[in-house]
Amino acid sequence: MLTRNDTTLADAREVYASIADTGVRHVGCKDVGLPREELRELMADIRGHGHVSYLEVVAETEQDTLQSARVAADVRPDYLIGGTLIEPVQQIIEGTGIRFFPYVGEIVGHPCLLRGAIDAIAEDARRAEAAGVDGINLLAYRYDKDVNALVEAVVGATSLPVIAAGSVDSPERIRALAERNVWAFTIGTAALDGVLVEGGSLDDQLRCALDAAAAVV
Fold first, then answer.
1. Are strands 7-8 and 26-30 parallel, antiparallel or unpaired?
2. How far apart are the two ends of the chain, measured CA to CA in Å?
3. Which label site among 97, 180, 204, 211 has the fewest CB atoms less than 10 Å from its CB?
4. What angle do CA 31, 124, 212 make, to 5 degrees?
5. 43-86: per-residue pLDDT in tens?
6. To 10 degrees, the CA torsion angle through 103, 73, 40, 186?
7. Cβ pair 132, 159 in contact under 8 A
8. φ and ψ at 115, to 5 degrees?
9. Is 81 helix (H, G, I), strand (E, B) or coil?
């Protein structure tokens, strides 16, 4: 994700251009930080490289969430992830071909945190699947209790693919998610701030993340 602290980088297009050939094929950003026209240009850049694009909704109000869905319907990411509204967002993006992975559980603050009982979060995943979404976006490492138990419960509660978003900041966390059959994960701040490989470039950080994911068979 071309984001830091749940906000899209002002120079996201330049940063993307610098890592477009690293082997990363899935690239995204948040719904806050760039005006619509620059967001449209970023999505066009990602498509132009043959990569898969994501827009993650971290808006804190229903009104802003719906506005972000309208922006998505206009700029056409491949995936719209995040946000806790389901049916109203589905109506806005209907017919666009955008795949939708909402958050589950109680989302608080910005950067977003996940709260609630594990059983309740898993039940949210079941309800989302029944509503016809394409997948689940889980703020696994933004949870304040047993993350491994949370991931196992949510992955086990649904047949949908699960993305783990937020605070994936080490090869160990990446491997733990892969071992629990998480379909994908997002990484932004940790890579941009050089947390995975001390002293390494952004290219080094991303290659480390890719290698950690590939290490789990």
1. unpaired
2. 24
3. 97
4. 65
5. 999 999 999 999 999 998 999 999 999 999 999 999 999 999 99
6. 20
7. no
8. -135, 165
9. strand
> Around Cβ 194, how many Cβ atoms within 10 Å?
14
Whole-model pTM over 0.85:
yes
CA neighbor of 134 nearest in space, from 100, 168, 162: 100
Rama region for 163: left / alpha / beta (φ>0; ψ in -120 to 50; rest): beta
Find how far residue 173's CA is from the centre of its chain: 15
As given in the structure block, the two tokens for residue 123 are 């039940």
CB atoms under 10 Å from CB of 180, counted, come to 21
User: Of how many residues is the chain composed?
Assistant: 217
Q: Which residue has the tokens 């889980």?
A: 138
Report CA dihedral (189, 191, 196, 201) to the nearest 10 degrees: -140
